[in-house]
Specification:
It comes from Wolinella succinogenes (strain ATCC 29543 / DSM 1740 / CCUG 13145 / JCM 31913 / LMG 7466 / NCTC 11488 / FDC 602W) (Vibrio succinogenes). InterPro entries: DNA_polIII_delta, P-loop_NTPase. GO terms for molecular function: DNA binding; DNA-directed DNA polymerase activity. One of its GO terms (biological process) is DNA-templated DNA replication. This protein is an alpha/beta fold. It has three domains: 20-160, Rossmann fold, CATH 3.40.50.300; 165-224; 233-351, Zinc Finger, Delta Prime, domain 3 (Up-down Bundle), CATH 1.20.272. Helices cover 60% and strands 9% of the residues. It has 17 helices and five strands. The protein has helices spanning 2-18, 21-32, 46-60, 77-85, 106-117, 136-147, 165-178, 185-194, 199-210, 218-224, 233-241, 247-255, 260-284, 289-292, 299-310, 314-332, 340-351; strands spanning 38-43, 67-71, 94-100, 122-128, 155-160. Helix 4 (77-85) packs parallel to helix 5 (106-117) and helix 11 (233-241) packs antiparallel against helix 12. The longest helix is centred in the C-terminal third of the chain and has 25 residues, at 260-284. It is globular.
Length: 352
C-alpha cells in the first residue's frame, strides 16, 4: 500500500508541476477585453509566447498605423521610449511589440514603463524568448529579473509552460475552425502525435489540410503529414522497453540541447502513464484510455501502451521511479554534470 501512496503523491506532483495558473488567468483577461497596457510574455514554450502575442494584437483591433514592432537586434531604447511617450491629438493608440532574446537593463525597463504610464493611449508588449546560446537556468534568471517590473496596475507578466494534450487540442480546434475546417478531436490528436506533440508544427500543418476542401481523414495524415518534430523522449523510453539501442536516441536528444530537468520530467510522465495503464488493467481488466487518462488515444497507440504496461511488474515501476527521482535530486543539487541521463539509462536498462 505504501508504494501506491508514493505513486499517488507523484501523480499530484506531476499535475501541479505542469499547471500554469498564469495562462488561465490571462485567457480570462483576453476574453474580458481588459488588456494590461504593459505585458511581458515568456516561458518554456516559444510557440505559445508568439501565439498569445498575436492574440493580444487581434483583441486590441489595432489599425496598421498604430502598430510598431522591434525584433531582436532592432531594439533601440530612445526610439521605443519616444513612441510610448508620444500622445496623439486624434485619440489614436500607440502599440509597441518588442521581441527579445536578450535581457533589458532594469533602468531602461523602468524608464519605458514610466513613459507608458504618462500616456494612457500606449501599449507595450514584450515577447521574451530563450536564446540558443543560453541555458534554461540562465533564461529563467533573466525572466525573473525582468518579470519583477511587470507587476502592478495595468501591468502583467505571463509565463507559458509546455501545453498539455488538452490545451494543445483546444488551440488546434480553434485554428481548424478559423480555417473553416470540419475535424474530429481524434483526428487532431493523431496530427499532434505525428508531429511528436509539437504544437507549433501541428498548428502550421492545418493550413495544408484546409486546402483539401473537405473533412480530412486519418489516411490524409499518413499521406500528407510527416513527423517533422524533433526526436521525442517517448521514442527513448520505447527503445528502453523494447531493449533496442537507446544510446543513439539519447545522444540525439542531447545534441538538440534539451535540458536534463525537462528530459527527466518527460521520462517520469511516460512511465507514470504506463503505470496508470498497468493499474487500470489489473483492477478493471481493460485498457480504455478514456477511463485511464481522461481522453481517448488512437487505438494503435492505446494498444501499444497496454502491451508495454502488462509487460512490467509493480516492482519494475517502483525501481524505475526511484532511479528517476534520484536523477532529479542530483540535477537539483547540481551533481548531475550532464551525465545524469546516461546513468539513468544504465539503471533503467538493468531494471528492465
Amino acid at each position: 500500500m505504501w508504494m501506491w501512496r508514493v505513486l499517488k503523491s507523484m501523480a499530484k506532483w506531476w499535475e501541479s508541476s505542469r499547471r500554469s495558473v498564469y495562462k488561465r488567468e490571462f485567457d480570462t483577461l483576453l476574453a474580458s477585453g481588459k488588456i494590461p497596457r504593459a505585458l511581458f510574455l515568456y516561458g518554456e514554450n516559444p510557440f505559445l509566447i508568439g501565439y498569445y502575442g498575436a492574440r493580444v494584437v487581434e483583441r486590441l483591433s489595432l489599425l496598421p498605423e498604430e502598430k510598431n514592432s522591434f525584433y531582436f537586434g532592432e531594439y533601440e531604447f530612445q526610439a521605443l521610449k519616444g513612441i510610448l511617450a508620444q500622445s496623439s491629438l486624434f485619440g489614436d493608440r500607440s502599440f509597441v511589440l518588442l521581441r527579445l532574446e536578450k535581457k533589458l537593463p532594469k533602468k531602461e525597463i523602468d524608464a519605458l514603463l514610466g513613459a507608458l504610464e504618462k500616456n494612457p493611449s500606449a501599449y507595450w508588449l514584450i515577447e521574451f524568448y530563450k536564446a540558443e546560446n543560453k541555458s534554461a537556468t540562465e533564461y529563467s534568471q533573466d525572466c525573473k529579473a525582468m518579470a519583477g517590473s511587470f507587476k502592478g496596475n495595468e501591468r502583467a507578466e505571463v509565463r507559458f509552460f509546455d501545453p498539455n494534450q488538452g490545451e494543445s487540442l483546444a488551440i488546434l480546434r480553434e485554428r481548424a475552425l478559423s480555417l473553416g475546417m470540419e475535424v474530429e478531436d481524434r483526428w487532431l490528436l493523431s496530427l499532434w502525435m505525428v508531429q511528436n506533440q509539437e504544437l507549433g508544427l501541428a498548428y502550421n500543418e492545418l493550413e495544408k489540410f484546409a486546402l483539401l476542401g473537405r473533412k480530412p481523414e486519418m489516411r490524409d495524415i499518413e499521406r500528407l503529414s510527416y513527423g517533422l518534430g524533433s526526436v521525442s523522449v517517448e521514442e527513448l523510453c520505447v527503445a528502453l522497453l523494447e531493449k533496442k539501442e537507446a544510446l543513439k536516441i539519447a545522444l540525439a536528444l542531447e545534441e538538440e540541447g534539451i535540458e536534463e530537468m525537462a528530459l527527466c520530467g518527460e521520462m517520469e510522465r511516460f512511465f507514470y502513464q504506463l503505470f496508470l495503464f498497468y493499474a487500470h488493467i489489473r483492477v478493471h481488466g481493460n485498457s480504455d484510455s478514456s477511463e485511464i487518462l481522461g481522453y481517448k488515444l488512437p487505438k494503435m497507440i492505446e494498444e501499444k501502451k497496454a502491451r508495454a504496461a502488462i509487460g512490467l511488474k509493480e516492482a519494475h515501476f517502483f525501481r524505475i521511479f526511484t532511479a528517476l527521482q534520484e536523477w532529479r535530486e542530483k540535477i537539483m543539487q547540481g551533481r548531475s554534470r550532464g551525465r545524469g541521463l546516461f546513468l539513468a539509462l544504465i539503471k533503467i536498462q538493468a531494471i528492465l
